[in-house]
Write a structure and sequence with these properties.
Layout (H helix, E strand, L loop, with lengths): L2 H17 L7 H8 L3 H8 L2 H25 L4 H18 L1 H8 L33 H16 L9 H20 L6 H24 L1
Helix pairs in contact: 1-2, 2-3, 4-5, 4-7, 5-6, 5-8, 5-9, 7-8, 8-9
Length: 212
């Protein structure tokens, strides 16, 4: 199947999910909305569970692509981390699937595909990407933290202690995730992160002063 047709099927499934609970979403309706036969849909995804995994995988990829854009959009490290936190909060606000992936809380309205990989014997060629292991909330913390560390310690970056940088990046990710379940005040996630990082710098400077 052409990539565009596959995307149309996933778009149709996502639209159906916004209108009714996943258990009530019918494969025949998804196929009709995408303008293909039900057999074509089954050929592509294998089952409704396969369609769910592909849909969740696409949302995960879109979220992580947004993280990349946020980290690359500014020059100041604090602004990059603030933008990443703001993106995390907004992505979870706009997509129930992203919110479920980041928090691990799957409502009965949503598909809840297993996080482990599907046995290779049951994987259709077009499903190999979707049938790989899906990230858990802990995985997302590590992925975003490690990507932030890589960007902020890359070429042209201000040299920083590796352990401190990793700690700060993980702190930012975990605060961003807390904003998903408990929305922050007027400054939003970005303002909260800037305040936290400012205090982090002040505290480190005080500790260094006391130790000299």
């Amino acid at each position: 199947m052409m990539p565009a047709a596959r995307e149309s099927l996933l778009d149709a499934a996502y639209t159906a999910l916004t209108r009714r609970p996943w258990p009530a979403v019918r494969m025949v309706d998804v196929a009709a909305a995408a303008g293909v036969s039900r057999q074509t849909l089954y050929n592509e995804f294998g089952s409704k569970q396969g369609l769910a995994r592909a849909l969740v995988r696409r949302e995960a990829d879109a979220y992580l692509a947004g993280v990349e854009r946020a980290l690359g959009g500014c020059s100041d490290p604090r602004d990059r981390l603030a933008a990443t936190a703001e993106w995390t909060a907004s992505a979870a606000r706009e997509s129930a699937l992203v919110r479920a992936m980041l928090t691990g809380c799957w409502s009965e309205r949503l598909p809840a595909p297993t996080l482990s990989a599907v046995p290779s014997s049951s994987v259709l060629p077009a499903q190999r990407r979707a049938d790989g292991p899906l990230p858990s909330p802990r995985d997302f913390v590590q992925i975003v933290r490690d990507r932030a560390v890589a960007v902020l310690s890359g070429p042209g970056a201000v040299q920083a202690d590796s352990a401190e940088l990793t700690r700060s990046c993980e702190l930012v990710v975990r605060i961003a995730l807390s904003c998903v379940t408990a929305p922050p005040g007027p400054g939003g996630a970005a303002g909260l992160i800037r305040d936290v990082l400012r205090h982090e710098v002040v505290l480190r400077q005080e500790v260094r002063t006391e130790s000299t």
